[in-house]
Design goal:
single chain, 285 residues, alpha/beta, 8-stranded parallel beta sheet, two-stranded antiparallel sheet, 15% strand
């Protein structure tokens, strides 16, 4: 990966190595039960533990995007996030970048403007809320642009690609241009593993991950304990740590700038192993 930086509330945060983003879920129905924080206090404890294990940033979400998940009213999402973000901030301090995982512009505005989030992580890439791009521009917040087709309920019926990697890159180009036009300078790209992709397409994207460098943006990869691992291996999400670590290692070798994970310590170890194999590091010469 190339070193990158993001502007967090006027403070330039530089990354000379891939960043590990720890997942904090304040939902009762996330696909991986081990990631669910029971309440705001639990979210704070989990966040502090992740930072102690080496997390460079955190991602707090209150709306499960797994297929078949229940809809969460905006008021409920806000109530969960308000308390959880306050607890996370108290636990990790002001300097750890925290993203809010939401597709709603109004929720993003409150999370960044009032509750202490720094970054907006939008699984829909602006498609589920037409106000999202303008809101992010007004907030002057870094934005994670993820590729998805349809909605979480319909996405797995929308997997017709000529070449999945080429098509995903093409479909990210237009929103990137729109964000740039609005003055959103810090955009991170997420190819959306598991979102509107078949099992085979996920691994094809992983195989050709280096192509996403064409977009000229830091690349976030979120594969932690997902079905692309569990279906391949015939296991549950609870059993998917080893598979997740293998996929994260491959993603880091292929240029991922950020890995979004449930298991921070394993990702930090994978990053160290990948770094030790690079010529620039001085090992193996």
């Amino acid at each position: 990966m190339k070193p990158f930086s993001i502007n967090i509330r006027g403070r330039l945060v530089e990354y000379c190595r891939p960043a590990v983003m720890g997942i904090v879920n304040v939902t009762p129905d996330s696909f991986y039960g081990g990631s669910r924080a029971g309440d705001a206090a639990d979210a704070g404890r989990r966040a502090a533990a992740m930072v102690a294990q080496g997390a460079d940033m955190l991602d707090v979400g209150a709306y499960s995007s797994r297929p078949g998940a229940d809809d969460v009213p905006e008021a409920e999402e806000c109530a969960r996030l308000r308390d959880a973000l306050a607890a996370v901030r108290e636990a990790v301090g002001p300097d750890v970048p925290v993203s809010v995982d939401t597709f709603r512009a109004s929720v993003a505005a409150k999370a960044v403007g009032l509750w202490g989030a720094d970054i907006v992580n939008d699984i829909s890439g602006g498609k589920l809320d037409g106000d999202m791009f303008a809101t992010v521009a007004e907030l002057r917040a870094p934005y994670i642009l993820m590729h998805m087709r349809g909605t979480p309920a319909t996405m797995q019926t929308l997997t017709d690609y000529a070449d999945v990697t080429t098509d995903v890159i093409r479909e990210l180009t237009a929103p990137l241009a729109e964000l740039e036009k609005l003055g959103v300078a810090d955009v991170i790209v997420d190819p959306g593993f598991g979102f509107a992709k078949t099992l085979e397409q996920n691994y094809s994207m992983l195989r050709h991950l280096d192509r996403f460098a064409l977009l000229g943006r830091p690349l976030l990869v979120g594969v932690s304990r997902k079905s692309m691992i569990t279906k391949l291996l015939g296991i549950s999400a609870d059993e998917a740590l080893e598979g997740t670590t293998a996929v994260n290692t491959l993603a880091l070798e292929r240029g991922a700038a950020i890995v979004r994970v449930h298991d921070v310590a394993a990702a930090v170890a994978a990053r160290a192993v990948v770094a030790a194999t690079t010529e620039e590091n001085g090992f193996g010469r």
